[in-house]
């Protein structure tokens, strides 16, 4: 198993294919999702600002990642991205935003990552892809799975206010979100 805490220098960058151009201004669907904290989370009902970072799949020490994972633009970097949101969690909260991660892995898979990485926020599971379909989030295929492309959404009072897509490098995403929040106070 490789080191998924750091990013290789030659990681291919994803391109903006326009797959998220429709999201700004869209209402978040009322779809409660299970979280690693044992709660159901309905982002559409949350007041104020929320940061929802969608990611493909976190690496686990006991599971191999799909072949050529590092060669798929935008695939590699879920662990460094999650760790960056963990490291900047207090600053994001001080900026008035709650944080959650989102992937299509089931909650049990996500709980391992949340515990191992000591995440102070929930990871939400869209295992049936109902949210991905409702928002028409971009996906890709790897290792026989349909996975979410990496995108970070700022949701304000149930409406998508800003979209970060493509997200690259993923370990800088939390800092980019903080900079945007500072430039756009609520």
TrEMBL record:
Source species of the chain: Deinococcus rufus
Protein name: Peroxiredoxin
PROSITE patterns reported in the protein's UniProt record: THIOREDOXIN_2
Any one GO MF annotation of this record: thioredoxin-dependent peroxiredoxin activity
Domain called Thioredoxin: residue spans: 22-186
Matches recorded under Pfam families: Redoxin (PF08534)
This protein's UniProt keywords: Antioxidant, Disulfide bond, Oxidoreductase, Peroxidase, Redox-active center
InterPro entries xref list: Peroxiredoxin_BCP/PrxQ (IPR050924), Redoxin (IPR013740), Thioredoxin-like_sf (IPR036249), Thioredoxin_domain (IPR013766)
Class of the enzyme per the UniProt entry, highest EC level: oxidoreductase
Keyword Cell division: no
Documented EC number(s): 1.11.1.24
């Amino acid at each position: 198993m490789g080191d998924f805490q750091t990013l290789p220098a030659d990681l291919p960058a994803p391109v903006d294919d326009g797959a998220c151009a429709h999201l700004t201004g869209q209402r978040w669907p009322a779809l409660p999702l299970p979280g690693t904290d044992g709660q159901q989370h309905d982002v559409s009902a949350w007041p104020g600002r929320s940061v929802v970072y969608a990611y493909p799949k976190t690496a686990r020490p006991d599971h191999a990642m799909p072949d050529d994972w590092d060669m798929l633009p935008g695939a590699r970097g879920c662990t460094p991205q999650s760790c960056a949101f963990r490291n900047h969690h207090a600053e994001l909260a001080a900026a008035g935003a709650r944080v959650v991660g989102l992937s299509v892995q089931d909650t049990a898979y996500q709980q391992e990552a949340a515990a191992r990485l000591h995440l102070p926020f929930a990871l939400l599971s869209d295992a049936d892809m109902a949210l991905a379909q409702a928002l028409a989030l971009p996906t890709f295929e790897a290792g026989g799975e349909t996975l979410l492309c990496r995108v970070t959404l700022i949701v304000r009072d149930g409406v998508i206010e800003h979209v970060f897509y493509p997200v690259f490098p993923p370990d800088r995403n939390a800092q980019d979100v903080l900079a945007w929040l500072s430039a756009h106070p609520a």
